Amino acid sequence: MSDLSRFPITARWPAENPGVIQLYSFPTPNGVKVSIALEELGLAYEPHLVTLSDTDVKSPAFLSLNPNNKIPAIIDPDGPEGPLGLFESGAILLYLAEKTGKLAGRNAAEKAVVTQWLMFQMGGLGPMLGQLGFFVKFAGAAIEDPRPRDRYVSEARRLLAVLEGALEGRDWIAGEYSIADIAIAPWLRALDFYGARELVGWADHPNLVAYLDRFLARPAVQKGLNIPARPA
């Protein structure tokens, strides 16, 4: 049996099965990337619900694994040189793809393209849509000055246009289904949650509409979107 005692987070969120990957997450766009990937890859894992409250993500236990106090994070008891803790959703996706040899391209050229689109999501799409959500649905919506919201609406439209063009004539962003799609699609789905679809002209992007529908129809996606389960 694997010994995860050197990870303080396991005292707060104990592992029932320390021999499988431990997932510490919440079902946000970034959080579900990892649960979906784990489901798609068929890896055994144990999910732990870490809420977005300071009592969880800023607790000493969680900070011991991710000093950046953001979900998701994992511990892989079967790491390359023993148990391995990782944070940052993109880094975790790359690690899991490399571990299994799946969903990241079959050769160096394909892997480079998958990584390109993964970085597009990590550096652009996710941060910009997250800020859009802040100014449309959350506290930023109360700001009277329209310029902050307009900035992110404009940037969201630009990024959606990039994806719309890239998906012309293909089902998945890098050719075959990959971790890049697992990173991108949950953020597109979030536009509905933010109530921002009309603002960004979602209906004017037929390739993206069909792309998200394809993604959401996958059984592993349907399962992963609800892991860890929110409290009743």
UniProtKB/TrEMBL annotation:
Q: Name one Pfam family in it.
A: GST_N
Stored InterPro entries: Glutathione-S-Trfase_C-like (IPR010987), Glutathione-S-Trfase_C_sf (IPR036282), Glutathione_S-Trfase (IPR040079), Glutathione_S-Trfase_N (IPR004045), GST_C (IPR004046), Thioredoxin-like_sf (IPR036249)
Looking up Gene3D superfamilies in the UniProt record yields:
1.20.1050.10, Glutaredoxin
User: Single GO molecular-function term?
Assistant: glutathione transferase activity
The answer to whether UniProt assigns keyword Transferase to this entry is yes
Q: Which PANTHER family match?
A: DISULFIDE-BOND OXIDOREDUCTASE YFCG (PTHR44051:SF19), GLUTATHIONE S-TRANSFERASE-RELATED (PTHR44051)
Q: What is this protein called?
A: Glutathione S-transferase domain protein
Q: Which organism is it from?
A: Dinoroseobacter shibae (strain DSM 16493 / NCIMB 14021 / DFL 12)
Q: What is the lineage of its organism?
A: Bacteria, Pseudomonadati, Pseudomonadota, Alphaproteobacteria, Rhodobacterales
Quick one: which gene encodes this?
A: gst3
